[in-house]
Design goal:
- Helices cover 23% and strands 31% of the residues.
- A hairpin with a 2-residue loop joins β6 and β7.
- The longest helix has 12 residues, at 277-288.
- The protein is built from eight helices and 22 strands.
- The chain has an eight-stranded mixed β-sheet, with helices on one face.
- α1 (41-47) runs parallel beside α3 (72-81), α4 packs across α5 and α4 crosses α8 (277-288).
- The chain starts with 6 loop residues before the first strand and ends with a strand.
- The protein is of the alpha+beta class.
- It folds into two domains: 4-151 and 292-326, 4-Layer Sandwich (Double-stranded beta-helix); 152-284, Double-stranded beta-helix.
Length: 327
């Protein structure tokens, strides 16, 4: 039997939401301070893997707070202790990241004063990570919250408010368009160059790798337009038996090089999206999300299929959050 007493579940630390059956979103776990020994997070995870998997299945998010995790190497050991297989740094991803150690990378390196909208990691790709780990190495002074929202709740609320639009999305699917330059732009959340994105400086190889990701490349003067899709706007979460919001309607960030931002997201037949719907969806995200104000040493585990995440602008420096993706 798992030694669940290694953990202490904390209630009221965050503005948590009730998922039903007494499960909160997110679940917050801290070390059990009544024990004679110091509880290490790596040990607690190894002993309680099945129990933690069941919690993640029901809640979608677990925040580990109060454990002695202070460095990128410590975080890498936590990720390894989970037993989840590594999801290699993806080809085709737009976010600029730097490898730190082992399975650990920086989170999106866009300037901290920029907002990163809600998204699933690698939702535009045929293969995407199933689990996400984040670690706060340096906590922010103010701002810089990571916000999380349950995808099935967003789907149900959008279906209720815009039933015809959701029906059209489901029928047609979506196409995404992004323009990548020859050099990476660290001032943009989607600023990787096409060479960095496809890890080659050869156009033919880039086209071959793009095709495997169901992307089409249209070469421009000093840049390339990447066409992704048509892709389904929703997925069916077979494990939880429910439909989920799994698209870039809000999260698809506009790049600086796009000559027509209105074409960043369209229906698969080329029809533009209604101008009012993305803003309505963004409002629903704001209403349904939980804003996590980071503390140093926090480790956040997300189910990438069940939960979307975003980043609010940082008001006061510093902030350093690291990430690791798992299959």
């Amino acid at each position: 039997m798992a030694e669940e007493s290694l953990f202490h579940e904390v209630v009221g630390l965050l503005p948590q939401q009730n998922c039903g059956d007494g499960v909160l979103f997110p679940v917050v776990l801290s070390p059990n301070l009544t024990l004679a020994k110091t509880v290490k997070l790596t040990e607690a995870i190894k002993v309680n893997r099945s129990w933690l998997d069941s919690i993640l299945h029901r809640s979608g998010a677990i925040l580990f707070r109060g454990f002695d995790v202070s460095s990128a190497s410590d975080f890498n050991e936590v990720v390894e202790s989970s037993g989840y297989e590594n999801f290699c740094h993806p080809i085709g991803g737009a976010a600029y990241r730097t490898k730190v150690v082992g399975r650990v990378y920086t989170a999106n390196e866009a300037p901290p004063d920029q907002n990163i909208p809600f998204h699933h990691e690698m939702s535009h790709a045929p293969v995407f990570p199933s689990k996400l780990f984040f670690f706060c190495e340096e906590q922010p002074g103010s701002g810089g919250e990571t916000c999380i929202a349950l995808s099935h709740v967003i789907y149900e609320r959008m279906k209720q408010k815009h039933p015809k639009f959701v029906e059209e999305m489901e029928e047609k699917g979506l196409i995404y368009s992004r323009v990548l330059g020859e050099e990476s732009d660290p001032s943009s959340p989607v600023g990787r160059s096409w060479m960095d994105t496809f890890t080659t400086d050869k156009k033919a190889i880039a086209e071959e790798r793009a095709a495997k990701l169901r992307m089409k490349l249209e070469w421009m003067d000093g840049a390339v337009r990447v066409i992704m899709g048509p892709m389904p706007a929703f997925k069916y979460d077979e494990v939880r038996n429910r439909k989920i919001w799994f698209n870039g309607l809000v999260g698809e960030m506009k790049d600086k090089l796009n000559d027509d931002p209105s074409k960043a997201v369209m229906f698969s037949d080329g029809k533009p999206l209604p101008t009012d719907v993305p803003s309505d969806c963004a409002k629903i995200f704001d209403e349904e999300c939980v804003a996590l104000q980071w503390q140093k040493g926090d480790v956040l585990l997300l189910d990438n299929l069940a939960v979307m995440h975003s980043r609010r602008p940082l008001i006061t420096q510093p902030r350093r959050v690291l990430a690791s993706f798992c299959k």
